[in-house]
Amino acid sequence: QLHLVEAGGGLVQPGESLTLSCGASEFTLGDYAISWFRQAPGKEREAVSCISSSGENTKYADSAKGRFTISRDNAKSTAFLQMNTLKIEDTAVYYCGAVLGPCFMDSSRYSYWGQGTQVTVSS
């Protein structure tokens, strides 16, 4: 079983920033496209952003465009989600997923998930 581990969540005020990380220990993350999804209480899991295995291609949900940046460091087998100008509506558990193949913004495509990290934006 392959495991992803997210870190970096926390409690911040509106307008502040957080950087989430997604790491893997048992496999080479560089072979996989990585996506970030989030799930707020009572809501469906939604795609936030994805990045291809090489890092050359990225996609963002409309809610993330201009505020969030996805990146990866394959040498360290880690992916990141830099989140700026956070809003209350960004509050959710954030999950990273890994898939062999292209970058998908569809959670059903992903085989491997982390346990999630809580992001709470509150004044």
Q: What does this protein structure show overall?
A:
The chain has 123 residues and is mainly β. Helix content is 0%, strand content 46%. It is built from no helices and eleven strands. The chain has strands at 4-7, 10-12, 18-24, 33-39, 46-51, 58-60, 68-73, 78-83, 92-99, 112-113, 117-121. The strands form two sheets. Strands 2, 4, 5, 6, 9, 10 and 11 form a seven-stranded mixed beta sheet that branches. Strand 7 (68-73) and strand 8 form a beta hairpin. It is globular and about 40 Å long. The N and C termini lie far apart (39 Å). The mean pLDDT is 94.
Descriptive key words:
single chain; 123 residues; mainly beta; 7-stranded mixed β-sheet; 11 strands; 0% helix
Q: Give start-end ranges of low-pLDDT stretches.
A: none
Sheet with most strands: 7 strands, mixed
Q: Could you give the distance between the termini?
A: 39 Å
- Number of DSSP helical runs: 0
> What fraction, in percent, of the residue positions are helical?
under 10%
Q: How many extended strands?
A: 11
Quote the average pLDDT: 94
Q: Spell out the helices and strands N to C.
A: EEEEEEEEEEE
Strand share of the residues? over 45%
Oligomer: single chain
Could you write a compact summary of the structure shown?
This protein has 123 residues and is mainly beta.
Please give the structural blueprint.
Layout lengths: L3 E4 L2 E3 L5 E7 L8 E7 L6 E6 L6 E3 L7 E6 L4 E6 L8 E8 L12 E2 L3 E5 L2
Parallel strand pairs: 2-11
Antiparallel strand pairs: 1-3, 3-8, 4-5, 4-9, 5-6, 7-8, 9-10, 9-11
